[in-house]
Amino acid sequence: KRVYAIKQRDDSKALICLVDSDARLQRYIRQVPDVAWQLIDSLKEVDSKPTTLILDDAVNLAPNLIAEDGSIGIRITNEPFSKELCYRFQKALVSTSANISGEPAAQNYCDIDPRIIEQVDYVCWNRRQEHKPHTPSSIIRLKADGAVTIIRQ
What distance in Å separates the CA atoms of residue 96 and residue 105, rounded to the nearest whole number? Predict the structure, then answer.
């Protein structure tokens, strides 16, 4: 609820979760479809941009993270800092762009709206000096029946 309030975002718009491993993914999806494992394995073989999967039958997450149809956007993160956070917390973490809803997503720390920084409990020091463009993750919807829909490439 707090993330939605800080972003001034309608809670009907989904947020994604990050996990650190295949094993952790299985804690939040009742039955990971075979096509998801095939895609995850193929992404490990190439240095691709982050890919978020939307999977059915989400479990063990806050109810307001799970879409009305029971799905969740979830990504096994390879970014070292977020991977370490997920590992240390031993659970999924909510992930979202650092912007007020409807405004452009911050590319770097210096682009984050001060209203966001003022409302959070803590801001990590990691990558504050970074100045490079970032592209949002690809988003792929995988249904239990094997249907694949590319939502964002």
Answer: 9
